[in-house]
Design goal:
By secondary structure, this protein is an alpha+beta fold. The protein has helices at 12-15, 23-27, 51-60, 64-77, 93-107, 142-145, 151-177, 195-201, 243-249, 252-256, 279-288, 294-298, 307-322, and strands at 111-116, 132-139, 182-186, 206-207, 213-214, 222-229, 267-269, 272-274. The strands form 3 sheets. A 4-stranded antiparallel beta sheet has the order 1-2-6-3, with helices on both faces. Strands 4-5 form a two-stranded antiparallel ribbon. The structure holds iron/sulfur cluster (2 copies).
């Protein structure tokens, strides 16, 4: 993965399935006004313009390790949640927060954060039924991901999504056993709300130029899962450590992206300026490589042992600028 793939031409069979509408248009690229996000991918394929392309993804990527990990996911998918207990266990929000975070970490999440749900995160047409979102970060094995864009890296993504599914379902079940409603959200399919803005608010890190979160411990080598709940909880604060500034002068991910999908400047998306990946350029490559994974792996913050040093240098630079 160290050398950039420069000769990518999308498979005509895939492109024949592409809809007229741009995925960037669905995402709201260039729109000045706020509107709720709408599903562009990873949902019921019968309900979205790119549904035929999403189905093609599964028909194309059939390496044995991918099939095996999808079978493991199917087993986890049908595990039922616990019934909602009739009586609520009473505790102050601070106590619930400590207990829930310990529980999430013990169940296997590598990091956990909490945010009050903001209505603007909800997908168009989805009802705001819960007060809080508990965000779970699920580490991907860096050594496995360095094989990206080979199918073995795609299998690692599926494996960790399944771990996120299992962790979020077990945490939601435990909360329901305490008498509070809870609903798990996990990949690969999108849930009721956009997880990235919720995770940024919950202190999971900063948005990187590659469109994924950079976490101070995990870099970008992780996946998100979540639990929506009405349990009384104390929310976390965003964790700003300098990644956004770093991205402004770093080009590692964009230099490695085969279809040149990572835009060099922030873009206006539904009224907000942020780093943005060109959906129409990324997706053809993503679809033909079991989910790609190059950009999140080459990001220097993802390399074990490097992220901490970078963050320490960024903190030192900030202190020097202030003096
Ligand atoms: S996932 Fe998309 S944006 Fe990232 S390197 Fe692959 S093609 Fe580029
Ligand atoms: S590779 Fe560089 S530009 Fe891309 S997300 Fe990571 S730090 Fe930012």
């Amino acid at each position: 993965m160290t050398k950039k793939i420069t000769n990518f031409t999308p498979d005509p069979e895939q492109m024949a399935l592409w809809p007229e509408i741009s995925g960037n248009q669905i995402n709201g690229l260039g729109e000045d006004a706020f509107r709720h996000p709408t599903y562009v991918y990873w949902t019921d394929p019968e309900t979205i313009p790119h549904g035929s392309v999403q189905k093609w993804f599964y028909s194309k990527n059939t390496a044995p390790e991918l099939i095996a990990t999808r079978e493991e996911r199917a087993v986890e998918q049908v595990v039922p949640l616990s019934d909602l207990a009739e009586n609520q266990v009473k505790q102050p929000a601070g106590e619930w927060t400590r207990t829930v975070k310990d529980k999430a970490l013990n169940l296997g999440a590598e990091a956990v954060g909490i945010a009050h749900i903001k209505p603007k995160w909800m997908y168009e047409g989805k009802l705001l039924e819960f007060s809080h979102v508990i965000i779970l970060a699920i580490r991907m094995t860096y050594d496995e991901m360095t094989a990206a864009p080979e199918p073995s890296a795609g299998a690692e993504v599926v494996r960790q999504y399944t771990r996120g599914m299992k962790t979020s379902k077990q945490l939601a079940s435990w909360i329901r056993e305490q008498g509070f409603d809870a609903k798990p959200e996990h990949g690969p399919l999108a849930g009721d709300l956009t997880l990235i803005p919720a995770a940024l608010q919950a202190g999971m890190g900063e948005l990187g130029k590659h469109g994924s979160i950079i976490n101070r411990e995990l870099g970008s080598c992780f996946r998100l899962a979540a639990v929506l709940t009405s349990l009384p909880l104390v929310e976390d604060n965003p964790d700003i450590f300098g990644a956004d500034d770093f991205c402004a002068s770093c080009r590692v991910c964009s230099n490695h992206c085969p279809p040149d999908a990572i835009l060099p400047e922030k873009q206006r998306v539904r009224g907000q300026d942020k780093w943005y990946v060109d959906f129409d350029k990324c997706l053809p490559f993503f679809n033909e490589t079991a989910g790609c994974g190059i950009c999140v792996t080459v990001c220097p913050f993802s390399r074990p042992g490097v992220g901490h040093n970078l963050i320490a240098k960024l903190a030192k630079r900030t202190r020097v600028q202030k003096t």
